[in-house]
Amino acid sequence: MSSPERTARARTPEEIEARLAAQRADLAASVDALADRVSPSAQVREAAQEVKTNARELGQSLRDLGSDLREHATRTVSQACEGEPEALKALAVAGGALVAAAAVGITIARRGAR
């Protein structure tokens, strides 16, 4: 049985130097990638991107909710115009809440003006 040293082809100094240079380049690229991942500026960029994504998603959710509310309000007003008792109650409650919110807002504004 022959040993691995005897069957392996002897490498020239140039081949060894080229292999070491390639390994150093690979190691340098790995270190640079790791340093970029843990750097504060990279973390800030990543956090900012996450905030932007979340803000876009929240904005879309709010637009969808607004659209749903508008459709529901339109339907409720139409039903109230037709004399639907539950729709009339809903409009009365909404109107009362609006008046109460306006009263609270005016009271807070007046207290702030003093």
- The geometry reads as elongated
Put simply, the count of helices is 4
Order of helices and strands: HHHH
Mean pLDDT: 89
Major sheet? none
Radius of gyration: 35 Å
Number of strands: 0
Question: What's the end-to-end separation, in Å?
Answer: 101 Å
Low-confidence stretches: none
Strand content: under 5%
Helix content: over 70%
Structural class: mainly alpha
Write the layout of secondary structure elements.
Elements: H1 4-7, H2 13-38, H3 40-81, H4 85-113
Helix pairs in contact: 3-4
Primary descriptors:
114 residues, mainly alpha, 4 helices, elongated
Note down, in words, how this protein is organized.
- The protein is 89% helix and 0% strand.
- The protein has helices at 4-7, 13-38, 40-81, 85-113.
- The mean pLDDT is 89.
- The radius of gyration is 35 Å and the shape is elongated.
- The longest helix is centred in the middle third of the chain and has 42 residues, at 40-81.
- It starts with a helix and ends with a helix.
- The protein is mainly alpha-helical and 114 residues long.
